[in-house]
Amino acid sequence: MTACATEPGNEAAENERAARPTCVITADGTYAARLALDGESWYPERWTLDGPEPYAVPLPSHQPEEPGTEVLPLTDGRVLIHRETDRRHAFSLLYPTGPGTGELPLGAVECPEEGTRLRLLPPAPDGEHAYALAVGRGSTAVWQVAGGAFGPEHLAEVPGRCSGGVWLDGTGRLLALDRFQDGHTKTVVVDLERGGEVSPLLQIAENSNDRLLLADPDSGLLLIRSDAPSPGHDRLGWGVLGSTLPIRFPESLNLADRTVTPFAIQPGQVLMPESCAVALRIDGPPGTWVGLWRPTERLVQHFPAPEGWLTGTGLWSSAGVLQLPYATGSVAYGVARLQVPPEQPEQPERDDPPPAERVTPRPIPLQQAPLSGGRHSARPAFEDEAVQAEGGSGGAAPRDGKGRGGGGEKNPSPAEAPALAAG
Description:
Layout: H1 11-19, E1 24-25, E2 31-38, E3 41-48, E4 55-58, E5 70-73, E6 79-85, E7 88-97, E8 100-110, E9 117-120, E10 130-135, E11 139-146, E12 153-159, E13 161-167, E14 174-181, E15 184-191, E16 197-202, E17 210-215, E18 221-226, E19 235-240, E20 248-249, E21 259-265, E22 278-284, E23 287-293, E24 301-304, E25 315-316, E26 321-326, E27 334-339, E28 358-359, E29 363-365, E30 380-382, E31 388-389, E32 392-393, E33 421-422
Antiparallel strand pairs: 1-2, 2-3, 3-4, 5-6, 6-7, 7-8, 9-10, 10-11, 11-12, 13-14, 14-15, 15-16, 17-18, 18-19, 20-28, 21-22, 22-23, 23-24, 25-26, 26-27, 27-33, 29-30, 31-32
């Protein structure tokens, strides 16, 4: 067992904790795990998603779990559980054994100082390993907490306080973290096979706060939140890993009185980032609903969330179907399915062109990426260069003439959208 440092409370940490999904799905979509409630008692529950119909297996321990206990599924069907008691973070693997629950203790990380924050990272691409982030006053530790031979293993120490956590490749080697240092947040890449080597990923402007929300290894599509185009106000944008095109901030993704959070990118769109469908969680005065958006399209398509949606959770099938897990009083485990609408053809030019997308300085790749033979640079930076927009200043034409976000057209109400199909 080892010790880690502490991090003072901050608004970013609280927002990140509030935004975490209530259910966690493996990268390949085979299993999901969540904490379920039986009366007043919490217990882990594993969902199987790769069969003809979803089904759930309860994994109760000898005593109820705390409400904040983290669970994470592995692709072999076991569920990692992270329990915290007296500043000690213990990890075990749970699995069904007939009528009961088997448990394999993996060890613990001790954090004796008050205020310590340690959390699990999103599921690794290989589905066999699991990682955690321990945030300290001046640095952040990356731990492998499952899949090793000798319990929790310290892999890297990153200067600064880190949040987020996005995998950039299909092997679990390149981890992107949002690092707060010197008064600003920038995304960096940690190479877990090079002793935790750290290199910059997002540096849009010197004084901007730039965070990576999602990445798709197949297409290279990145979803980003940054205040570079509007200092003091975060905006949602997109770019392509290793591209020399600018980061774009479409008006369609930045809705007044709405919080838009991407949670899933359509896989399999190799070298076609502009065609990827992106699933969005949208929160506003009417409630929470689902949005679908592509870089090539001007508008977000709105759909009501299924009743009992495990909010912020979903995955795409290889056939382009968005699957949204839900649970209600009458349906203990279900999946609503939404067939992604076909890509809309580019709209013709009009006499009054829509407002151009806001753009940031142009990205340029850094030195050779740590993954040799890859089609994308894994570590792009950004140079400070103004770009003239098509139809006005502040935007840039995309490489294929598509991808123009921009406002002017009204987004439909979620109440007017078609309902999802339940499975």
